[in-house]
Structure formats: C-alpha cells, structure tokens
Amino acid sequence: MSDLLERLRGRGWRLTSQRRVVAEVLDGEHVHLTADEVHARAVERLPEISRATVYNTLGELVGLGEVLEVATDGRAKRYDPNAHHAHQHLVCYGCGAIRDVHPQGDPLAALPASERFGFTLSGAEITYRGLCPDCSTGS
Amino acid sequence: MSDLLERLRGRGWRLTSQRRVVAEVLDGEHVHLTADEVHARAVERLPEISRATVYNTLGELVGLGEVLEVATDGRAKRYDPNAHHAHQHLVCYGCGAIRDVHPQGDPLAALPASERFGFTLSGAEITYRGLCPDCSTGS
DNA sequence: TCCTAACTTGGACTTTGTCTAAGTCAACAC
DNA sequence: GTGTTGACTTAGACAAAGTCCAAGTTAGGA
C-alpha cells in the first residue's frame, strides 16, 4: 500500500496524514468497508479526521482507479481496494458477507452484438448471490 | 398488468386505488423508475397518494417477486416490472440510460466450484457498462 | 523560512428511505 | 344494501448516507 501512496504522490497528490490513514485502513484485512466503517477505523488512528475528508479521499481514490465502489445492496456503498485484479463479488443474502471471486472467461463475450444496442462496452460487474456455509446450516 | 392485479388479489391483497395506480405506473413504457419517479407519476393520476404508500407497495411487489429492485448506481433503487423474464442490465455511464439485455448461457456456469467457497448459489446479477450511441458521438 | 494553493473541518443541507399513530375503506357476512 | 373489522393509507417525524460550503490549516516548492 506504500506503493499506492507513492503512485498518488507521483500524480500530484499532497500526502496528508488524513489520506495516509485512509489508505492504511483500506489496506487492512477488512476489504469491503462502507465509508462510515472506513471513517470509524480512521478515527482510531487520527481522532480528528472528519467524515467529509473520508468521503473526499474515497471519491478521489475511486476517480484515480485505485479503489472500486461496490453497491451490492442498495444501502451504503462499499469500497474495494483490490482494484488492480479483475474480479467479481459473491454475496450472502443471509448475512451480507462479501467474497471476491474470479469467474472464468470474459463476461462481455456472453453479450452478443444484437444485445448491445450500439453501446461501446467497457466492462461488466457481476454479483453472484447465494447462502454462505454458515447461513445455510443455520436454516 | 391487469393479470398482475388479479394475481395479487388471488394472494389476498386488498385491491386499493393506490395499489392499482402504482401497478399502472410500472406497466408504462418507462420501465426502470426510482421510487420517487413512481410516486411522481402516481400523483398525476391520484393526487393524494403518499410517498409511504408507494414505498410500501413497491416493497410488497418486490417481496412477491412481481418486480425487481435494481441498484445500478448506488443512488436510488430502481424498480423493474420485467421480473418474469430473466435478464440483465446494460447501463450508459454517460447518461445513465438502462436497457434490459439477454446474455447467452448461464452466468453461474462461469464460477467454478473452487470459487464458490461453499456457498449455495441462487443467481447472478450482471451490470454491463458502456457508452450509449448518443453519448459516444457527443464526446 | 515563507507562501500559497490544496487540503481539511464542522456543520448545515439534501436525498433516499423507514416508522408511527390516527384515520379510512375493501371485502366479507348478513 | 348495511355494518363490521382488520388491512391499508396518510402526514409528518425520523434516520441513514452522502454532498456542499466558508473558514481555517498545512504540505511542499521557491
């Protein structure tokens, strides 16, 4: 993730303590955090960091392509730092757990020209839905 | 869509004018409306209908499987009455236009067992992203 | 060390959606 | 037809998620 900070500095970013902390939080083990969760973890390291800055920083990271926005549930967006490896998401409709998954093949290949309506396609987001092992045994 | 009303009555629904109006609105040509857009169109036909009733009715239709919730942008959810024909969505990142599309094959087949992490899969939602003809010429 | 544009802050504001208590009415029984 | 009743609707308060702004702070170049 220090790679990330260097990349950002190379793009003219001012390297503030707030941005550093947000980057560190995203680099942790919890990889699909909401903005509020990022803020909560950031506050532990830098108590005076504001919500607005967290939103600003996340937005900038998304704009730079360093972080992905994931909207799996229509509630708060989640932020996925694994932006440099193409992947999709598998979501449990019991507990909401999210896993990164790697389907085979190119998802765009499944959409024939007749179904593209003149669009210039750039990508596809797939959300697989199911029950995770914990939730399916508990039923 | 009167089919829909009959189906709902068969399931014990009280057939109120409000529910009728919401069903009529969803049956129109604009098929990916937000809750507020549904409300705005419903008010044209039944001025006293409340936002709460629109939200309630949409939620019930989703619960009954008659309407799909679509979250393509992390903003307001959209409601898709085309629930009885499996389909996916193609979204323009210029103007936000949404089209129903029908990819070939079973999307679940692309996810090998080693990438399922013990989940019991039930479906997949695919959002194809691209530029629509209008937005790509205008650039 | 100084300067300044970029960054951050707190709080007001907006959008989207949920909840509640009180009033209304669709559908059934007669 | 009329009455009854529980399901439905309403207005408005509330909550969650996110945006915006004016004022203050600061990273990094000169």
TrEMBL record, chains A, B:
Organism domain of life: Bacteria
UniProt key word Transmembrane helix: no
Annotated keywords: DNA-binding, Repressor, Transcription, Transcription regulation, Zinc
Any Pfam family matching the protein: FUR
InterPro entries, A to Z: FUR, Fur_C, WH-like_DNA-bd_sf, WH_DNA-bd_sf
Gene3D superfamilies on file: 3.30.1490.190, Winged helix-like DNA-binding domain superfamily/Winged helix DNA-binding domain
PANTHER family listed in its UniProt record: HYDROGEN PEROXIDE SENSITIVE REPRESSOR, ZINC UPTAKE REGULATION PROTEIN
Annotated protein name in UniProt: Fur family transcriptional regulator
Lineage: Bacteria, Bacillati, Actinomycetota, Actinomycetes, Kitasatosporales
